[in-house]
Amino acid sequence: MRAFFRRGLLLASLRLLTLPALAQTTKTDSVNIRKIYDEALLRGQSYDNLRQLTSQIGARLSGSPQAQQAVDWGKVPMEKLGLDRVYLQEVMVPHWVRGAKEKAEIKPAKGKGVALNVCALGGSVGTGGKLRAGVVEVKSWAELAALPDSKVKGKFVFFNRPMNPTYIETGRAYGEAGDQRRNGAVEAAKRGAVGALVRSLSLAHDDFPHTGMMRYDEKVTKLPAAALSTNGADELSQLLKADPGLTLELEMNCQSLPEVKSYNVVGEVRGSKHPDEIIVVGGHLDSWDLGQGAHDDGTGCVQSMEVLRLLKATGLRPERTVRAVLFMNEENGVRGGEQYAALAKAAGEKHLAAMESDGGGFTPRGFNIEAPEATVRKMQQWQPLFEPYFSGLFVAGHSGTDIGPLKDQAKALVGYDCDSQRYFDIHHTAADTFDKVNRRELELGGASMASLVYLLSKYGL
């Protein structure tokens, strides 16, 4: 059955081809892409580079000493490749620190307290000691709006809307549920609450709380905001049904410090025919502070560096300049992506395309493309070349956060797309560690990215 399904995908892709495209997707391209995959699977360096990054440095939140260590580390493997240029781009980044481990405990009217696994959301203020209050649970903005002020004032608002498990594309579920994390503290403050509690953005049922960025509005009070593990959220919800008058005690020691100077790390190979046309491929070097930042986004960084290595190792000198960028501060500010775009615009650089890997290092599926419809169709003509590797899904869709600021400068923004079913189990948690990454999946992803960069460099858009 699977063979027939794959054959159907291939035939469907072939129907997209025009005669000029058939002339382009030559046997030579197929052979060269096979060389890229062979090199990646036989001698790929992404996995070993990731091992170094995660074991020697680990978590690397923007502004931290570990983030600077990651910058210093990032230069080394690219310099060893003998690239035409390796350099740093200065960028000022926020410096938020978590402080001592957070504590939370449910205090029922009767019986023993129940400890909860929680973590502060990125950018949150601390509690200034122990903060104890009642809890009101909501699952939508409409529910919160419908509550009288007396039910909200002086309490924690507990946002308990889960990610939608019926979506096949887990990123869609994450995006729809993420408004609670981003805006929960602001909306709770408007109603006189003392804090915000948010169900972790995960489809898994476990005890790992998921951090992530939240925002404040200077017009309302800044409330402490914490994420509960999914198991913890379920338990709190059940206990509230039995005892609506229970209280919760929360202690968080996080704070924001003055901004810190940091850097994007950049390496490039000059194009042999069109050096003024640039193809960017990148991931973000910073990570949240709970795990090792392996899948998010150590994998994207090492895959981007591997793109340059694969092109050099196979002798496929790009006709257009290919630039790998390890962006700083994607998680809590996007300062690196914005600074890269601003510097490129000021320098009058011409970007053909930008590609980002920030969905983990899982099995490749294809690419999401942000571009005019005609450009998307042109890139879809290359699908048959990727079908033998089961990574031939070229669809219109979101590309990436760090390359977003290049939208008006590049002809196409491309997001590397891999299997997402396990990603949000570990996303922004202490479980995002090197042991969760599969060597073969990671190297296949780098080969997919390098193959598309090869075609973009050869044919343009």
Automatic annotation (TrEMBL):
<keyword id="KW-0732">Signal</keyword>
<dbReference type="GO" id="GO:0005576">
    <property type="term" value="C:extracellular region"/>
</dbReference>
<dbReference type="InterPro" id="IPR007484">
    <property type="entry name" value="Peptidase_M28"/>
</dbReference>
<keyword id="KW-0865">Zymogen</keyword>
<keyword id="KW-0482">Metalloprotease</keyword>
<dbReference type="GO" id="GO:0046872">
    <property type="term" value="F:metal ion binding"/>
</dbReference>
<keyword id="KW-0458">Lysosome</keyword>
<keyword id="KW-0964">Secreted</keyword>
<dbReference type="GO" id="GO:0004180">
    <property type="term" value="F:carboxypeptidase activity"/>
</dbReference>
<keyword id="KW-0479">Metal-binding</keyword>
<keyword id="KW-0862">Zinc</keyword>
<comment type="subunit">
    <text>Homodimer. The monomeric form is inactive while the homodimer is active.</text>
</comment>
<keyword id="KW-0645">Protease</keyword>
<keyword id="KW-0121">Carboxypeptidase</keyword>
<keyword id="KW-0333">Golgi apparatus</keyword>
<feature type="signal peptide">
    <location>
        <begin position="1"/>
        <end position="23"/>
    </location>
</feature>
<dbReference type="InterPro" id="IPR039866">
    <property type="entry name" value="CPQ"/>
</dbReference>
<keyword id="KW-0256">Endoplasmic reticulum</keyword>
<feature type="domain" description="Peptidase M28">
    <location>
        <begin position="264"/>
        <end position="445"/>
    </location>
</feature>
<protein>
    <recommendedName>
        <fullName>Carboxypeptidase Q</fullName>
    </recommendedName>
</protein>
<keyword id="KW-0325">Glycoprotein</keyword>
<keyword id="KW-0378">Hydrolase</keyword>
<dbReference type="GO" id="GO:0006508">
    <property type="term" value="P:proteolysis"/>
</dbReference>
<dbReference type="Pfam" id="PF04389">
    <property type="entry name" value="Peptidase_M28"/>
</dbReference>
<dbReference type="GO" id="GO:0005764">
    <property type="term" value="C:lysosome"/>
</dbReference>
<dbReference type="GO" id="GO:0070573">
    <property type="term" value="F:metallodipeptidase activity"/>
</dbReference>
